[in-house]
Amino acid sequence: MFDNKNEFLRDCKEIVEVKSRPVKRRKSFKNILIFGIIFSIIGGFSIGVGYKFSESYLSGYAQNNGIVKEENQTEIIDSSLAQKVKYNQTSSPIADIAEEVGPSIVAITSKVKVRDWFDNQYVQEGQGSGVIFDVNNGDVMIVTNEHVVDGAAEVLVTLYNNKKAPANIVGIDSETDLAVLRIDKKDIPKDIANKIVAAKLGDSDILRVGETAIAIGNPMGYNNTVTVGVISALNREIRLPDKKLELVQTDAAINPGNSGGALVNINGEVIGINTIKITDTKVEGIGFAIPINSAKPIINELVENGSVSRPYLGIYGKDIDKNISELYELPMGVFVADVIEKSAADIAGIKKGDVIIEFEGEKIFSMEQLSQLIKSKEVGDKVIIKIIRNGNQKKELKAVLQEKS
Q1: How far apart are CA 255 and CA 278, in angstroms?
Q2: What's the whole-model pTM score?
Q3: Catalytic: which of 110, 129, 173, 177?
Q4: Residues β-bridged to residue 403
Q5: What is the CB-side half-sphere exposure of residue 379 using CA atoms within 13 A?
Q6: Which CATH class is domain 94-193?
Q7: 94-193 and 311-403: same fold?
Q8: Exposure winner among 193, 224, 330, 343, fewest CB in 10 A?
Q9: Is 259 a catalytic residue?
Q10: Is 177 one of the annotated active-site residues of the chain?
Q11: What is the pLDDT of residues 357-390, one digit of tens each?
Q12: What angle do CA 345, 347, 348 make, to 5 degrees?
């Protein structure tokens, strides 16, 4: 214990030793400036000598080793002489095609009379598109899809300038989903009628997968809508409940209302009539068009006759494939499920329960094959059909193909 305060302070001084730090002397600015100038002079002289020596050495090395020095490798351009690059937007070929073909594409509104559950009649409207394929002295001829005007009591056509005119149905063909309409030029103002032009029809047989495809139509009521894609595939077989179609596939957007519109190539030629879009949440960009080369003969026949003449046998059939043949001990072919009264088959003696095994010398394995063979014939052609009756009776029958009504 410390006796007093002074003794405590004395002992603290003995324990804690305080060392004084030496004070650094600051160099004067004048001395620093002089030293810097001297160093710069010496350094500059050294660098200059070194550069000169290096240049002399490298020049000699280059000459001795056959290396030629290029003069004026970098050229300084006077900015006052430089010209600004101007972007001149040239005309798009797609835009040119849209302008050229657009006036030949029309919107179609069909009015169908329908009845509800309470037998009340009302008018239901449908929309589609069409392509003007011929313009003559008195008429404007339009091709569209059969399903656009099927059952229509009234058809109204909207031309490229939003002028409307009534149209008559010349003929329809449900087998190919094609229809032809006619507008009387008298129903169109003369100044407008004189400007109407027919679209150029191309050649769908020379199409290639990957080439440009332009769809022009009336989707959702928006006239002359243009979408662009490519030809995705050719000869796509699409099976519908009542028919089979071979179509051109494209990823150019084809939406409701586009039906009957034009699928156009890069030359502005119609290569197809838009008809179907696959609607599925799992896929997008799959649309189809009727090849124009398939449509041309149908269009011509509809114009001339109002309908398409097709040969007709008059049966409902089911396939007997190998498995069914072995299971039921039946011959392979087409099982006749029913015969239409007074049809070619009925007149020839074909009966329900018969199995058609041969048509014009060709063995039959499916209803599809039989249908294609019948289509290859003409109305009035005589054909030989071989059948099996009651499982063991083989018969040869002759039929005269009738026109399908």
Answers
A1: 10
A2: 0.69
A3: 177
A4: 311
A5: 10
A6: mainly beta
A7: no
A8: 330
A9: yes
A10: yes
A11: 999 999 999 998 999 999 999 999 999 999 999 9
A12: 65
